[in-house]
Recover the amino acids of this structure.
């Protein structure tokens, strides 16, 4: 894994693509893209840069947000690395794996599957939270994985929120574009949980940001969250995203609107045009925590 | 053409896609993307915004640079519209039209073909310089097409340079990422000119930026040009781009390096990662001329 499959210079830094075999994903090969700003140095720990994990949405790979997200000039200015994993295992050879856009390949939902035949490979939760940081450490790219934050889009926004909420201390801040905020209450989440989990009624709540936050309190678990969702987003209109459910839940628990911000952005849709508009602001917001 | 096929809000403005029948392209349907910043107003001529035409490279459509170029936040800040045309006619039903990536579909080379059977449809030069500005005027989007500049990438950089050089007064400034600077002396240009032009030996010089600039002088024809090309660009290494030929030609004619800048950017390749790195700087540079 020490030699990248490809390298592109961008924003004075470099974007590297790596392939490696993932034990969390049952021994399948997986790809990541890693942006490293020019300010990083692997030789001195004081000049290592902090890292942002970006989780993509349904149908995406590690490439889409790297190509269309508009993150790199802002990340270079902020002195922050960005790691883009894939959205699911690939090539598990499970019947029906490639049949729908919202389940199976490209749709790992950042959970650990408990249902056969998915449970051997579909363990994106373990992959992102445990295996990936260790892999990034091994790259020797001057990235300090002890200073990490997480963000994502749509299904990846769901991933970012749930991983952040469930792992205190692992991520300093969490942001999301158009996240699926309450997956147990929307068609995408219901389908995924029914398909991946043996007992969705018991297991799904640990993968639902709105339910997770409902048992937290600002005194015991301070949160720093920034959510942007567009009002012209068809999936928002179809009640797949439900940002209001999350907003109501955090308010009920007494979280401050300044530290847990849920913003509805007028007229924006679900596309990378929306992401790229607010990408620099999200990077800058995370950098405050990562350089603190 | 008054109703867009699609609309996406981006960078507080909007990206519209339109389809229309082009007479220059022999009656074929063609698509454009148009970014309009929120600062524009169609109701008052004083608040109309100037326009940048972006010409894409081989294999691209009107979409690639809109999705991957990273232009819109900078264009919004600068108060500049951007028009993205396609790179060739589509669906002319000419034998071999879709056979190679560097000739025919996706490879119009921004010229008027004189050779059969291409000459009926492959007239991108007339389309971009004459028909497109009139179409943009008709859209009623608050764009002032009398204040225009032009830029592009690779084959589109060739297009931007040659259209700028041949049409004094039409474009205020010209910039290019990795342009084909001397197409009569490189394989891409030789193939295109031989294929599209009846007498390449006579006709090709009018489509070659290095040859065109060799007959100009700073006193009679002041130029404002910004070129960026990457040293790790495989096509640069294969002598498809030849920026040094253009640089030498402008210096020989006595042009000032400050107003005609040819910059080699260390380590960058031919990709959109390169374009997106320098996109904000190009937009800002053009805005000086467009708002003057």
């Amino acid at each position: 894994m020490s030699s990248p499959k490809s390298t592109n210079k961008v924003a004075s830094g470099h974007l590297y693509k790596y392939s490696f075999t993932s034990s969390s994903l049952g021994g399948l090969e997986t790809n990541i893209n890693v942006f490293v700003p020019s300010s990083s140095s692997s030789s001195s720990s004081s000049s290592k840069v902090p890292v942002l994990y970006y989780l993509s949405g349904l149908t995406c790979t590690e490439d889409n947000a790297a190509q269309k997200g508009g993150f790199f000039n802002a990340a270079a200015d902020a002195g922050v690395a960005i790691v883009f994993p894939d959205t699911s295992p690939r090539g598990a050879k499970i019947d029906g794996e490639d049949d729908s856009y919202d389940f199976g390949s490209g749709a790992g939902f950042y959970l650990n599957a408990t249902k056969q035949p998915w449970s051997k490979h579909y363990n994106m939760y373990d992959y992102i939270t445990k295996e990936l940081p260790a892999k990034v450490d091994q790259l020797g790219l001057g990235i300090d994985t002890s200073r990490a934050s997480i963000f994502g889009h749509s299904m990846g926004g769901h991933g970012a929120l749930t991983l952040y909420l469930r792992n205190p201390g692992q991520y300093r801040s969490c942001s999301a574009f158009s996240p699926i905020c309450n997956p147990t209450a929307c068609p995408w989440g219901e389908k995924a949980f029914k398909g991946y989990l043996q007992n969705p009624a018991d297991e799904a709540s640990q993968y639902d940001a709105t339910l997770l936050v409902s048992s937290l309190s600002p005194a015991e678990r301070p949160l720093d969250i920034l959510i942007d969702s567009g009002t012209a987003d068809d999936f928002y209109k179809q009640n797949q995203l439900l940002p209001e459910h999350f907003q109501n839940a955090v308010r009920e628990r007494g979280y401050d609107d300044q530290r847990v911000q849920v913003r509805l952005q007028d007229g924006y849709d679900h596309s990378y045009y929306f992401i790229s508009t607010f990408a620099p602001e999200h990077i800058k917001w995370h950098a405050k925590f990562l350089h603190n």
